[in-house]
Amino acid sequence: MVTMRFLSLVGNSFGCSASGERLVSAARDGDLQEAKALLDYNPRLARYSTFGVRNSPLHYSAAQGHHEIVSLLLESGVDINLRNYRGQTALMQACQYGHWEVVQILILFKANIHRADYLNGGTALHLAALNGHSRCIRLLLADYIPSIPNFCSILRKKSKNDESVSEFDQGSLHEVISRPADGGITALHMAALNGHADTVHLLLDIGASASSVTVEDGTTIDLIGAGSTPLHYAACGGNAQCCQLLIAKGASLTAENMNGWTPLMVARSWHRDSVEEILSQRPAGRPRLCPSPYLCLPLMSIVEIARENGWRCNDSPSTCLDPCVVCLERKCTVAAEGCFHEFCTQCALYLCSTNSTSTVSQGPPGSIVCPLCRHGIVSFGKLAGTRPVTKEIARNSLSLSFCTCSTELPGNNSLETPFCKPDLQCPRPSPLRSSFRSLSCKKFPSMKLSPGLCMGAPDTSPCLVPRTTDRSMSGQLVRCSRSSSLRRSTSQNDGRRWLCSFNQSMGADSSC
Fold it and tell me: Where does each ANK repeat begin and end (predicted)?
């Protein structure tokens, strides 16, 4: 009986983890056909996570910028806000590496932008600002910057009695932009320290405070000092353009942090000679800045239309009577307000996501240029014939168990147990790859599967089955739990955790 349980454990662990590792490899390498075949075979593989860092296939595809695989995983029903060992979501990793196409898809699927890193409290906005990914920042704020022509003038108004201020929730926008990580560090601090002038310009234009200060919380090592403004951080980074932008927005040259240092003293202590002259001379008057080239007002309107009516239409030019003039493939679904030129939703999204024009001759700041007439577009409107997309049930329901096993061990002496129940009609593998045949639902000889050993057994109650350990000459093997997160065995997780880096969640892909 002990031998049978050992064989059951080995066989089930191999069947559950091998295909999961293949999906991870496909997501990391961008192999779309392999990912489709694996998800068709078993939809719950989308929730698989690796040892140690606990990155799911969604994390890997987002970090590598494979947006097609990200769409495939999301359409299969995977949780868009899955976290790895340090609390990072796929959105956070896509922002960290600047894959704006992945960020666009995740925002359209309503990913949570407020999730924070367990180690430093940083959000997706902090990671995008840290690396200067301005396109990702404006996509993150698509639900907070309204598609109205007087947005910039509303932000500049100080009076709370003005009725126009109530046209959008300015408080929510300010809360998202000014949210501090550990030590009170905001996204503006991170962008200024690393010298990302375009990101600093965008954050200041949408209302980031140039006078926000860091705090001493005992959890971070701040060599600049608590009580530092973004100008202190820009002085430490030594970027002259960032310093000029912050000074133009009202940053104080004489503000002292808790160490008693002004921005000029910080620059001198870090030997930033290039910014000493800027920080030592008080400007005669506040210079007038042009609007940020990454501010995009129409983004909220097109995102709302895309969520309601879909953004990917597979109409061919032969079946589309009035194709989009940009791609000549999809039918027109939206029209630009003002010039009324028509586009497909996907092309309109692309225009809004890639725009980098600071001013438009015939439009307010933040409008994008119409590719047909050069008119400034502030918002998009849905065409009359466009119908909402009927949301289909996910083709791969994650409510299905990983493999459904019998509730009792068979009483006869038969040594053959089907990997899945025959009445489930398990789908046959796609003939995309010959090696994929080894994953078919065929019987394993000399093996009995117990429901307590099945990695994907339904999670009826949290940790009701105690974990028992069997010793072997090769090491420790621990029975798979019923956890819905599909974690690996505890002994294997502990034995390999030391291989994983605690500074970069994606840095240990090859070893974990």
Answer: 53-85, 86-118, 120-141, 183-215, 226-258
Global pTM reads: 0.72
Q: Are 211 and 244 spatial neighbours (Cβ–Cβ below 8 Å)?
A: no
> Each residue of 445-483: pLDDT tens digit?
443 333 333 333 333 333 322 333 343 333 333 333 333
DSSP H or E run through 476: strand 475-478
Backbone angles phi, psi at 379, to 5 degrees: -155, 165
Q: Are 297 and 364 in contact (CB under 8 A)?
A: yes
CB within 8 A of 82, min separation 6: which ones?
A: 47, 49, 56, 58, 59, 89, 90
Can you tell me the distance from the alpha carbon of 23 to that of 17, in angstroms, rounded to the nearest whole number? 10
Q: What is the mean pLDDT of residues 91-106?
A: 96
Query: What values do phi and psi take at 334, rounded to 5?
Result: -130, 160
d(CA 138, CA 136): 6
pLDDT band (50, 70, 90) for residue 48: confident
* Distance of alpha carbon 76 from alpha carbon 360, whole angstroms: 41
320 lies in some domain: yes
Question: Sign of the C-alpha dihedral, residues 181, 183, 189, 191?
Answer: negative
Q: At CA 336, angle to CA 331 and CA 340, rounded to 5?
A: 85
Q: Of 84, 76, 90, whose CA–CA distance to 38 is shortest?
A: 76
Which residues fall within 8 angstroms of residue 41, CB to CB, at 6 or more apart?
19, 427, 429, 430, 436, 439
The pLDDT value recorded for residue 167 is: 61
Same domain, 194 and 281: yes
Range of the domain at 443: 2-17+395-499
- Chain position carrying tokens 């489930």: 424
Shared domain for 491 and 416, answered yes or no, is yes
Which of 289, 269, 290, 188 lies closest to 231 in space, CA to CA? 188
482 and 433 housed in the same domain: yes
Provide the domain count of the chain.
3
Helices 100-108, 299-309: axis angle to 10 degrees equals 60
Given a contact cutoff of 8 angstroms between Cβ atoms, the answer to whether 48 and 24 are in contact is yes
CATH code: domain of residue 221: 1.25.40.20
The length of the chain in residues reads: 512
For 496, other C-beta atoms within 10 Å of its C-beta total 16
Average pLDDT over residues 74-80: 90
Confidence band for 153, pLDDT divided at 50, 70 and 90: confident
**Which amino acid appears at position 170 of this protein?**
Q
Q: Is there a contact between 130 and 190 (Cβ–Cβ < 8 Å)?
A: yes
